[in-house]
Amino acid sequence: MTTPEPKPRSIKPLLLVLFVSVAPVILAFIVYYNPSLQPAGSTNYGTLVEPQRPLPTNNELKLTTLDGQPFDIDELKGQWLLMAADQAACPEECAKKLFILRNVHAMTGKNVKRVSRVWFITDDAPVPQKVLDAYAGTIMLRANPEQLDEFLAGHNLGAQNKGELLNPIWLVDPLGNLMMQFPKDPDPLKVRKDLGKLLHNSQIG
After folding, report:
1. Which of 8, 48, 124, 162 has the most Cβ atoms closer than 10 angstroms to its Cβ?
2. Do 65 and 33 belong together in one domain?
3. Does residue 83 register a pLDDT over 90?
4. Same domain for 176 and 90?
5. 0.85 surpassed by pTM
6. Domain of 182, in residue numbers
7. Residues 25, 70: one domain?
8. How far apart are CA 188 and CA 191, in angstroms?
């Protein structure tokens, strides 16, 4: 009498265990690289401006180029704008902000053309040539600081609170709404992550 050959073991249990083990990792990667799948309650690094404030009219915020020509603020609509404000001499803190703006802009990759960086200069002093060279490509505009206060901070800050105007980096959406403020000395990677989410989910700009 012959002994029946044992049935080959099924590998299905092994595959099931393997799938259960790696599924969370795979899901984490999918969610991380697809911001639209992240929970609605996930936090932003930047602080949302509430309510959002639209770009002011030319009378409310008079802008000029470095050569003194009037600049129409409506020309800035249609793109995401990373913005900072500081004095023309651009001390270390100013240079750090412009450096972050430049690097975050570059890190947007294929979306780089959807984003512009803007530096509002709050006085009439000359901009050092080394700053012009280092941050070529930044839109540099002279602005009245009191009028700029009204737009960025939402009220007139006064001279004693200039830090509230000069410290942050700001973000404007393509419709011309001031929507987010980043803190002093921000983490560029976290700024990039916030911007990346917006670029990914936005159908405008």
Report:
1. 162
2. no
3. yes
4. yes
5. no
6. 47-201
7. no
8. 5
- Residue 153 scores a pLDDT above 60: yes
Report pLDDT digits (tens) over 23-77. Answer: 544 544 344 445 455 555 558 999 999 889 999 999 999 999 999 999 999 999 9
pLDDT of residue 127: 97
Query: What's the rounded Cα separation, in Å, for the pair 107 and 85?
Result: 21
Output the pLDDT for position 167: 86
What phi and psi, each to the nearest 5 degrees, are found at residue 51?
A: -75, 160
Query: For the chain, how many structural domains are there in total?
Result: 2
* Distance, CA of 176 to CA of 153 (rounded, Å): 16
3-state secondary structure the chain: CCCCCCCCCCCHHHHHHHHHHHHHHHHHHHHHCCHHHCCCCCCCCCEEEEEEEECCCCCCCCEECCCCCEECHHHHCCCEEEEEEECCCCCHHHHHHHHHHHHHHHCCHHHHHHEEEEEEECCCCCCCHHHHHHCCCCEEEEECHHHHHHHHCCCCCCHHHCHHHHCCEEEECCCCEEEEEECCCCCHHHHHHHHHHHHHHCCCC
